[in-house]
Amino acid sequence: MTAEHHRPPLKVALMGLGRSMFEDHYPIFKAHPALFKVVCACDLEKERRDIVMKDYPDCKMFRQFSDMLDEHEIDLVDIATCTKDHLAHAMLSLKKGFWTLVENPVALSVEDAMPLKGQATKSKNRLIIMQRGYFEPDFMLARQMLSDERLGQIYQIIIRKEDYIRRDDWQVVKRLGGGASYYAMTDLILQALKLLPSPPIQMWSELKRVASLGDAEDYAHLNLKTRDVISADIEFNGGVLPCDRSPSFIIRAERGTFKVEPGAHQGVLNIIDPDYKFPRRRSSVRTPPLIDLHEDFPVVQIPVTLPQGTLTGITAFWKCVYDTVRTAKPFPLQIEDSLEAIKFAHLMKKTSPFGK
């Protein structure tokens, strides 16, 4: 990931110095100084501001977000605060005219997000929502396989994200907008919507608390059905031991399956040999003979990889951010994509006794 034609780095202002910021945002800024330079940071905790100050001695520090937004030398405001605050913070930044990046989800319902969508339009679409899942290599592989004729007719897409974590932070507190429906499922739902051939017309869901220490769910299961033959089965489970975890994507089709492990750059296609043709046979209403109806046929295992040089993961996301802000290259996801995922996450919360 390099700056093209010696363009200057983006001057980034950080809002919210929590775990998400220091895991998925800050390391990229440090690793790619030609693309990003942290010029401002805002957090109530001095200890966290000091971490940034150590790496960026000239960085201006703030305790109040509104004070930081009075600065003029900012290209991008990067917001990684509590879920319930995303909407208000993004609105303030957009009203100031800044490019604004906000952690997913931007709101807890589509209705809540509509003013933000309006403000984003007024601000020349300077809103970017952090949807990590769209850039993950396993998702890219699953998307690549949709057009692979060796699978035959696809009838089911299975998406899984599993962990075992006794969370005790605000992400598992309902009144703060916590729960797996928002912090995990919105990414998985967006992946499903991008894989399905048409919009869902039916849904089923359930929420549970398995291992977390809060009152919000850490297990969310959603099934989406379309008018086509393909359905999507999506599950986040925060109570699965490492030895029991599933592939992140399974695509089931009439001639076999495609599977890929979480974060992997290579998956496996298990299919009936593409050169094999079944003998012609017809169904019959007659009394069947006393024989086993199973047939012998050759099955092959074929490794599948992404094209060489494909940029993936968090690095790919931030490269798109840089290109969008600095060169006006269209960002691959629009606010409507994120709002569609929020719609189903909110429906899960609204229709589950556990989600209320």
At a glance:
With 356 residues, this protein is of the alpha/beta class. It is 30% helix and 23% strand.
Mean pLDDT: 94
Q: Can you tell me the overall shape? A: elongated
Strand content: 15-25%
SSE string: EHEHEHEHEHEHEHHEEEEEEEHH
Radius of gyration: 23 Å
Total strand segments: 14
Work out the helicity level. Answer: 25-40%
Extract low-pLDDT stretches: none
Strand-pairing-aware structural class: alpha/beta
The CA-CA distance between the termini, in Å, is 43 Å
Can you describe what's shown?
The protein is built from 10 helices and 14 strands. With 356 residues, it is of the alpha/beta class. The longest helix has 17 residues, at 335-351. The mean pLDDT is 94.
Topology:
Layout lengths: L9 E6 L3 H13 L4 E7 L3 H10 L4 E3 L2 H4 L7 E4 L6 H10 L3 E5 L6 H13 L4 E4 L6 H9 L8 E9 L17 H4 L1 H11 L6 E7 L10 E7 L5 E7 L11 E5 L2 E5 L5 E7 L26 E7 L7 H15 L7 H17 L5
Helix pairs in contact: 4-5, 8-10
Name the features.
eight-stranded mixed sheet; 14 strands; 356 residues; six-stranded parallel sheet; alpha/beta
